[in-house]
Amino acid sequence: MEITRKGVPTQVEGVQPKVGDVAPKFTLKDLNNNTVSLDDFLGKKVLISVFPDINTRVCDLQTVHFFNLAGSLENTQIINISNNTQDDLKSWCATKNVDALMLHDDDKTFANAYGLWIPEFEVLARSVFVVDEEGKLAYVEIVPEMATEPNYEPAINACKA
């Protein structure tokens, strides 16, 4: 798959899941080194917010936007995923005073399962997934331009549906 970064084309490795697919399983560590699995949230909707680097403006905006919505989405868990280090994510949360579920994909487990790895920049592609209560993908957006925010409204609507 090809996306752009500030207008310059770059490749995203792998096969990306589609709406209606069973969401690929993953298990990652949170900021306290607890193991978190997608299966932990069966019976709830899960909004997965994926970003390349928490220490950039657009990633910051995306994460804060979904954090601010967390309380208004019934029966929905928001998960934030990047391959930033645990320390980077902890530091960002402390600076922003945000207590969100942040998972770090150190070994590209999630990146490979969802086909989101950008080898040129060694980051995950900015994307949003909504998994329904049965574990199927209800919404998928792989943002076509890395430097822009995702389209929030359809993701939110998928959580409310």
UniProtKB/TrEMBL annotation:
InterPro entries: AhpC/TSA, Thioredoxin-like_sf, Thioredoxin_domain, TPX, Tpx_Peroxidase_subfamily. The lineage of its organism: Bacteria, Bacillati, Bacillota, Erysipelotrichia, Erysipelotrichales. Keywords: Antioxidant, Oxidoreductase, Peroxidase, Redox-active center. GO terms for molecular function: thioredoxin peroxidase activity. Residues 17-161 form the Thioredoxin domain. PANTHER family: THIOL PEROXIDASE (PTHR43110). This is Thiol peroxidase. Pfam families: AhpC-TSA.
